[in-house]
Write a structure and sequence with these properties.
The protein contains 17 helices and no strands. It is an all-alpha fold. The protein is globular and about 60 Å long.
């Protein structure tokens, strides 16, 4: 199965690249064809069984994103990125929440879908940046925001779940559930990543052999991923913090470390996006209905309006003001995971709670298919219009992607 998936993904990526479409779209489309929607070469159960592999791929992506966030980036863009992230995430939350509540009359559903709409999938977005080896203020801002969006989504999810449960099942709103627990999860993920990264730098500085360095880093990345899962922490945030710690505490040694790791990423990323495509269900699109369309419209408008307002308020680079919103469409990982958590929690509740949980899963599953396909081309559009793609990026396409 892995052989068929790898070859199909490579071929589809090349075809889409020839069509001037980001090759990650080709990987995802190949996954859809091989998945249960069409050929069923990769059944849904097999996708579920390969969850440890997808977690490892996400861990690598988070680690490599962290490697881009050097001290100079934080000094120049840190406050700006956080404020823009808050603006675009909160705008999506408010607009989706208001539109869904107006359409359905279900405030609990509006709060939950609004919270999930704030998340942005880093994997497909970052893959496009690496494919075209883009560099500039817009690229840097995108990397920072997709890494930090997880934190905001978790906080909004905790808040929304607390109030939705109270509305649907008559529970009392708990400050611990609504705010303290999400904050502790975020701080825990950052502490895990930074702490492990600090320890890893002591060894990285002393290793010269590339094979030893690769073995150490893969082990550390897996260790952080395992501990994050065991503790119920955000995988992406923990791995991002690990990469940030390594690149800033050992800037000279880490350059070689990231070069070693990026050498193994291309086949892993291809298989990861094949599995992403295999999980998507074409049959859900007709079921998306008006609610799904309202969700997509509200999320898109919120992301674009919020990023524009945040960028203007912080006097960001003109390219960031004009094009950042186009790079924030992708939705997967966190949104899907939280949607499943909502359905699981409401599964034993009353009829209203069960119906709300089912609606959340169906809307997120259907809209994820749509935005995962259209998201990467819009990322390419944004960095292309911003002038951040090198004149001849094709010469670099065969190189491993990464910082």
């Amino acid at each position: 199965m892995f052989g068929i998936a790898g070859l199909a993904g490579l071929l589809a990526g090349k075809v889409f690249q020839r069509l001037r479409i980001p090759r990650v779209v080709g990987y995802i489309v190949a996954g859809v064809v091989l998945g249960s929607s069409l050929l069923n070469v990769i059944p849904l159960q097999q996708v579920a069984d390969l969850a440890p592999f997808t977690d490892f791929a996400l861990a690598l992506i988070g680690f490599m994103i962290g490697g881009e966030l050097k001290r100079s980036v934080f000094e120049r863009f840190g406050k700006q990125m956080v404020l823009i992230m808050l603006a675009e995430g909160l705008a999506a939350f408010v607009l989706v929440g208001a539109l869904v509540t107006w359409l359905t009359g279900n405030l609990a559903l509006g709060l939950l879908l609004g919270a999930l709409s704030s998340a942005t999938a880093p994997a497909a977005t970052v893959d496009v940046l690496w494919e075209y080896r883009s560099r500039g203020p817009l690229t840097t801002t995108i990397l920072g925001i997709v890494a930090l969006d997880d934190a905001l989504a978790l906080i909004l999810y905790g808040f929304a779940m607390a109030f939705a449960s109270a509305l649907l099942e008559g529970r009392e709103v708990s400050l611990q559930t609504g705010l303290i627990r999400p904050l502790l999860e975020i701080l825990g993920a950052l502490a895990l990543g930074f702490g492990t990264g600090w320890l890893a730098t002591m060894v990285v500085r002393r290793l010269q052999d590339r094979d030893d360095l690769l073995a150490l880093l893969v082990a550390v990345i897996l260790l952080v991923a395992g501990l994050a899962d065991w503790c119920g922490l955000s995988l992406i945030l923990a791995e991002m913090a690990l990469g940030v710690a390594l690149t800033n505490l050992a800037p000279n040694s880490s350059r070689k470390a990231f070069e070693v790791v990026k050498g193994i990423t291309p086949p892993i990323y291809i298989l990861f996006f094949i599995l992403v495509g295999a999980r998507l269900q074409v049959g859900l699109l007709p079921q998306m209905g008006l609610l799904g369309l309202v969700y997509v419209f509200g999320r898109t408008a919120g992301k674009m309006a919020g990023s524009w307002l945040g960028a203007n308020a912080t006097h960001a680079d003109p390219a960031v003001r004009k094009y950042l919103g186009f790079a924030l469409f992708s939705q997967a990982g966190v949104a899907v995971g939280l949607a499943l958590a909502i359905a699981q929690q409401f599964h034993t509740g009353n009829a209203a709670a069960q119906e709300t949980g089912t609606l959340v899963v169906n809307v997120i599953a259907a809209t994820t298919f749509l935005v995962q396909i259209i998201g990467p081309p819009f990322v390419k559009f944004a960095i292309s219009r911003a002038g951040e793609i090198p004149t001849h990026p094709e010469s670099d396409h065969e190189e491993a992607r990464g910082p």
